[in-house]
Amino acid sequence: MVREIDPPSIQKEFLLAALAEGKRLDGRIPLEQRKIEFVFGEELGNVECRLGKTAVLAQVTASIVKPRDDRPYEGFLLINSEIGPMASSVYENGRSSDSEILITRLLEKSIRRTEAIDREALCILAGGKVWQLRLTLHFLSDSGNLLDCASLASMMALKHFRKPDVEVIGDEVIIHSPEERAPVPLAMHHTPLCLTFAYFENLSPILDPTHLESTLCSGTLTVTMNAQREICVLSKAGGTPLSVEEIMGVVRVGVDKVRDMVKIMDEALEKDRENRVVEVR
Amino acid sequence: MSSSRIEILNDGGLRHDARRPYELRSTSFQLDTHPTAEGSSTVTQGLTTVQVSVFGPREPKSRSTASHDKAIINVEVGVVPWAQGGGGKRIRGDKRLQEIGASIRQTFEPVIMTHLYPRSEIFINVQVLSADGGILPTAINATTLSLISAGISITDYVCSVSIGLHLTQPLLDLSYIEENDLPNLILASLTNSGKITLAQMETRLHLDRFQEMLELGTEACKVLKDEMDQVVKDNTGRLVERMNVRVGGGGGGMTIDQ
Amino acid sequence: MASAGPSRRRSDGRKPHEIRPLTIEIGELDRADGSGRFGFGATSALASCSGPLEVRLNQELPTRATLEISHRPLEGVGATASRALITTLESIYPSALRLSLYPRSLIQIIVQSLSSSSAPTLSTGRYNESPEIYIDTEPETTEKNVWPQPPTQSALAVDKKEKSPNTSYNFSSRAVSINSATLAILDAGSIAMTHLPIAISIASLSDDDGLVVDPSIEEEYNSIARFGFAWSFGKNVSLREDQNQKDSNMDVDEEEDEEMELIWVESEGKFDKEKFSDALELSKIACRQILSEIRAKLGETLECKRLQ
């Protein structure tokens, strides 16, 4: 087992002193995110998201399965999010640490429980055939704030993905290959995105902590929001206690940030669409 | 979504268990309910019962995890098979239980004065005996009491409650049925400062309602704190009384401030 | 050398012995000691290497470092195909690294596939944007087909074949995995190497046709025989401690070249001795070419670091 080494105290003091002046070691202002970059893969639904030096690869695939008997109209969304040692040697294969559980649970909550994907739209034949989406996340590099990066990557991959067009004639389902009919995008209700803030004793919160910042901070708060001013998930476990006003302050910052992020996503998608031929006809 | 046949709030403004929106469920706090643990308590809120035992500060089970300048806290959460629905659905090592454990640990890490107990371990065992919603809030309340009963220094009472929202009406202390149907927020606050140490929410909610719920929750926590404080004081008072009898007069060497 | 005339073009416009454009990126991952991305066209892999690290007590070896190689497929979780790839890597790297220099420590190599593990949706290159789809409504009918279908596999039967997601990796995926791992170890620079393993895949499209170097997915799919070769490059390679490291399922005369040595051979399908030796020769040239590209890229990266 590889243990994390505590950063030297001189580094800690320097970081705190800089933060007290409202400066961060990478030159950002407290409520600024690192640069978001998307790299689209060859296939639809394959997106690598980079948030500064943190990188997560998301891949969406679809298959046709039988729905559950009690929910014949609903498709499935499976999320595979195991953090391997590639992200950082502290994560081990097949052994989940506390932080890993928190990340995967929060992702699950913010993507699945908020009903970002219209699962009823995944139904092909009630009680017979539904689409099963599988979202696989690969955590490539943990340079702090894996969660935000993973949520961006996931939402982007889901937006980017297209499922093949299907036609139902009686009981028969015809799956059209992409060159017959253009594949169709998924029906999505909204785009929930995670924002993580880190707290330091007696200092104002910072957005998108780097790895060093998150090891030194006294607590984090993650809020998942969408562009419709809705809070989808909020999670603050322990750390510095906050007053109601402080929490509300952070949430209000989140509203604007999420809007900006959705805009960045849409622009990236638009750009990708120009370079990609989806319509074959 | 699944059981929307139940009327969350009827025309008379009563909930399905005949409570008013801001009414907490009946509570019972019992201290020292475990034979060998340093501190323990059993807390019942409505039909949810949680027993928490605190062991330690003691020598850590594995040396390698010990810290030289503070105590480490380990939390384990278990649910008895008959706690809910009779079908041992939640097994040990379930991600949800691990998450509850992690939340409890993170909530108490800044509250317990860990620097007083270097190189040691404080082990908190949470057992859910019956579950009818609000496992985490009840477990947090029980942990606070157990820590007090174990005599471990903490900076403040941590009290926790769940808050739901039905249309525009906030509801306090949700039962299992309500929990499944409503957007809900779990809040734990340090009651003296009124600051929030844990906040968890996992369903969609509009921003404007959120603040109202936060404020309501902090108020409810204060009510719970008074109840818990009363139990602790009664307990300690009884103890002091007995000591006085044995030692004779006020020579027990212990006073409690009223 | 190869019997095919060099003038003949392949379906994607390449000459028979032409490699797809290479992707070589070094050191992009922040938290690993070393990382490398290697790709032949669309087939690519990312690898990271960390070490020497603290090792778990029960894995500790008193005389050498514990080498932990893991692989993650692009979709789902690792299965047999993944395991097979790890076995390949495990046969190559222990001899390439001087593990005895780092006793009681851990060296981690993680390979992440960046291209789909299963066969293409249909054997054409017309729509490589198409999502990966397979149907598993009736899992019991899913054939447990070993990946290389008999060469008689017609395009009509292809549909059937897609139903099994757990086909093993094609040779170019295996080759990129090996090459990316080599890049990662090079970038880490913390582990002494005796030589550099570099791999290439070669396919034979038909009996009378010549061999193609670095076949694309569909070429490999329609081929009658496939080969994977890895050559080790280094000065005095043969002087290393353990001599017999080649993991070949064929009886090959080892080339006593001064600076390159065969370290991995896998082959499938129908071929004769002549074809095999042709492939062997071709792979040598291709690996040399890849090596020089890697050298150039590495030099560039180091130069950048020096300037900073």
Verbal overview:
The complex is a heterotrimer of chains A (281), B (258) and C (308). Chain A has 281 residues and is of the alpha+beta class. Chain A has 5 helices and 14 strands. Chain A has one domain: Ribosomal Protein S5, domain 2. In chain A, the strands form 4 sheets. In chain A, strands 1, 2, 3, 4, 5 and 6 form a 6-stranded mixed sheet that branches. A 4-stranded antiparallel sheet of chain A has the order 12-11-13-14, sandwiched between helices. A two-stranded antiparallel sheet of chain A has the order 7-10. Chain A is elongated. Chain B has one domain: GHMP Kinase, N-terminal domain (Ribosomal Protein S5, domain 2, 2-Layer Sandwich). In chain B, 30% of the residues lie in helices and 27% in strands. Chain B contains 4 helices and 10 strands; from the N terminus they run ββββαβαββαβββα. Chain B has a 5-stranded mixed sheet, covered by helices on one side. With 308 residues, chain C is α+β, with helices and mostly antiparallel strands. Chain C has one domain: Ribosomal Protein S5, domain 2 (2-Layer Sandwich), CATH 3.30.230. Helix content of chain C is 26%, strand content 24%. Chain C contains 5 helices and 11 strands. Chains in contact: A-B, A-C. The interface between A and B is medium-sized, with 35 and 35 residues.
